[in-house]
């Protein structure tokens, strides 16, 4: 027989395990806050831009750019995006700045992007040191500008704006508020899931309704729980109705010989 659960039962489970759910939610938020503010290393970001345009020879001849030339330059950007993060460029950057990175490790910290149909390329570098992030960004573009004529026999890269370290740099990673918000959601979901799991595993009978629903048996009567202290103080409590439903009876056995 397929079991179904009503909306009322869902709210009853949540209400019953509310303290557990709140505990998981607060705990997850605290862990995320501690990790974000005290454990994770702050990462800073610095960006520089260069533009891909016509060669100097074309400029000296005062040849005006047409749509075909612009389209060619835009297509070249895709190739440049690969070259600028290649070993040929990054090894020179590492050697010039004496960086404690390999070319592969440095490549993961560099992001090259450009807007669609734009000749402007943005090189963004992330590093735990904001000054070093700026130096890597600028050096990478300078090395690329110096070596691209030999690599592709073109001279159409000009630096548009260099990276600058702000007076009071703000880390871009981690993002404490976002991490805490995600942790709150995950903590609440975990708490609710655990609440329903505990409710599913709990097969104890606590109320008269449990007997009728789970055992499909009619309820004939209820016996109250009576402590020994209650018997000594007031024997009439034997006749009082049960408080809270289905309980066991505690009695004293007499010693017989």
Tell me about this structure.
By secondary structure, the chain is α+β, with helices and mostly antiparallel strands. The protein has 3 domains: 8-39 and 174-201; 44-161, 2-Layer Sandwich (Alpha-Beta Plaits), CATH 3.30.70; 206-257, no CATH class. It is 52% helix and 11% strand. The protein has 10 helices and 4 strands. The chain has helices at residues 7-16, 18-39, 56-60, 67-83, 87-97, 103-108, 130-152, 176-201, 208-214, 228-233; strands spanning 44-52, 110-114, 120-127, 157-161. A 4-stranded antiparallel β-sheet has the order 2-3-1-4. Strand 2 and strand 3 (120-127) form a beta hairpin. Helix 5 crosses helix 7 (130-152). The two termini are 53 Å apart. 17% of the residues are buried.
Give the secondary structure arrangement, pairings included:
Layout: H1 7-16, H2 18-39, E1 44-52, H3 56-60, H4 67-83, H5 87-97, H6 103-108, E2 110-114, E3 120-127, H7 130-152, E4 157-161, H8 176-201, H9 208-214, H10 228-233
Antiparallel strand pairs: 1-3, 1-4, 2-3
Helix pairs in contact: 2-8, 5-7
Beta-strand residue fraction: 5-15%
Identify the CATH architecture of the largest domain: 2-Layer Sandwich
- Could you name the CATH homologous superfamily of the largest domain? EIF_2_alpha
* Gyration radius, rounded: 36 Å
CATH topology of the largest domain: Alpha-Beta Plaits
- In round numbers, the mean pLDDT is 82
Q: What's the helix-strand series?
A: HHEHHHHEEHEHHH
Total number of beta strands: 4
Model regions low in confidence, pLDDT < 50 over at least 5 residues: 56-65, 244-257
Structural class: alpha+beta
What overall form do the CA principal axes indicate? elongated
Strand arrangement within the widest β-sheet reads: 2-3-1-4
First CA to last CA: what distance? 53 Å
Number of helical segments with 4 or more residues? 10
Share in helix:
40-55%
The biggest sheet, with number of strands, parallel, antiparallel or mixed sense and barrel status, is: 4 strands, antiparallel
What's the CATH first level of the largest domain? Answer: Alpha Beta
Total separate domains: 3
